[in-house]
C-alpha cells in the first residue's frame, strides 16, 4: 500500500471509547467463559483495523454513520499507519487475553485485558494513542539506524 490514507482522528478516538466499553465488560465478567467470549469478540473487532486500518472497523462505520454527520468534517486528518499499528497491538493483547481465558489462566487474562483497557482509556479520554506513540518511536529509531 503505497498511498497514505488519511483518517479523521476523532473516529479512532471514538473507536477507543467503544473498545474501552467492551474491555470493561470483559473485566467485569471476569476470566471465566463469559469474559473470555467478550474479549474474543473484541479481538475480532480489532482484526479489520489491524490488517486494513482503523477506517475499516465497525467502530469507524458507526462513527461515519452516526457521529460525523452531526459534528461535521475534521479540521485535520492523520495517517492511518500509527492507528493501524495500535490496532495490531490491541489485537495481540486481546488475543493473548483470549488464549489465557481459554487456558483458564486468570492472571494472564486480567493482565492483557487490563492493558487493552488502559490503552483504550488513554486514547478515549485524553486523546493519547499509546500504540501510535510506540509506532512513531519505532519509526524514528529505525529511520536513524538506516
Essential attributes:
mainly alpha; 3% strand; 146 residues; two-stranded antiparallel ribbon; globular; 2 strands
Oligomer: single chain
Got a strand count? Answer: 2
3D shape: globular
Q: What is the element string, with H for helices and E for strands?
A: EHHHEHHH
Outline the biggest β-sheet: 2 strands, antiparallel
On the 0-100 scale, what is the average pLDDT?
95
Rounded Rg: 16 Å
Helix proportion of residues, in percent? over 70%
Unreliably modeled segments: none
Beta strand %: under 5%
Q: Termini separation (Å)?
A: 21 Å
Q: Tell me the domain tally.
A: 1
Number of helices: 6
Strand order of the largest sheet: 1-2
Pfam families: DUF4395
Organism: Demequina muriae
InterPro entries: DUF4395 (IPR025508)
Protein name: DUF4395 domain-containing protein
Describe what this molecule looks like in 3D.
Keywords: Membrane, Transmembrane, Transmembrane helix. There is one protein chain. The mean pLDDT is 95. Helix 1 packs antiparallel against helix 2, helix 1 packs across helix 3 and helix 2 packs antiparallel against helix 4. With 146 residues, the protein is mostly helical. The protein is globular, with a radius of gyration of 16 Å. It has a two-stranded antiparallel ribbon. It starts with 5 loop residues before the first strand and ends with a helix. The longest helix is centred in the middle third of the chain and has 22 residues. It has one domain. The chain has six helices and two strands, in the order βαααβααα.
Amino acid at each position: 500500500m503505497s498511498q497514505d490514507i488519511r483518517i479523521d482522528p476523532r473516529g479512532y478516538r471514538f473507536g477507543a471509547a467503544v473498545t474501552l466499553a467492551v474491555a470493561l465488560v470483559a473485566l467485569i465478567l471476569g476470566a471465566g467463559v463469559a469474559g473470555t467470549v467478550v474479549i474474543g469478540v473484541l479481538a475480532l473487532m480489532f482484526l479489520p483495523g489491524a490488517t486494513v486500518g482503523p477506517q475499516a472497523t465497525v467502530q469507524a462505520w458507526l462513527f461515519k454513520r452516526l457521529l460525523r454527520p452531526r459534528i461535521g468534517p475534521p479540521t485535520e486528518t492523520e495517517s492511518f499507519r500509527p492507528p493501524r499499528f495500535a490496532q495490531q497491538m490491541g489485537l495481540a493483547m486481546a488475543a493473548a487475553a483470549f488464549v489465557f481465558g481459554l487456558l483458564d489462566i486468570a492472571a494472564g487474562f486480567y493482565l492483557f485485558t487490563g492493558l487493552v483497557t488502559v490503552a483504550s482509556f488513554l486514547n478515549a479520554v485524553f486523546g493519547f494513542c499509546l500504540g501510535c506513540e510506540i509506532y512513531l518511536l519505532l519509526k524514528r529509531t529505525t529511520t536513524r539506524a538506516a
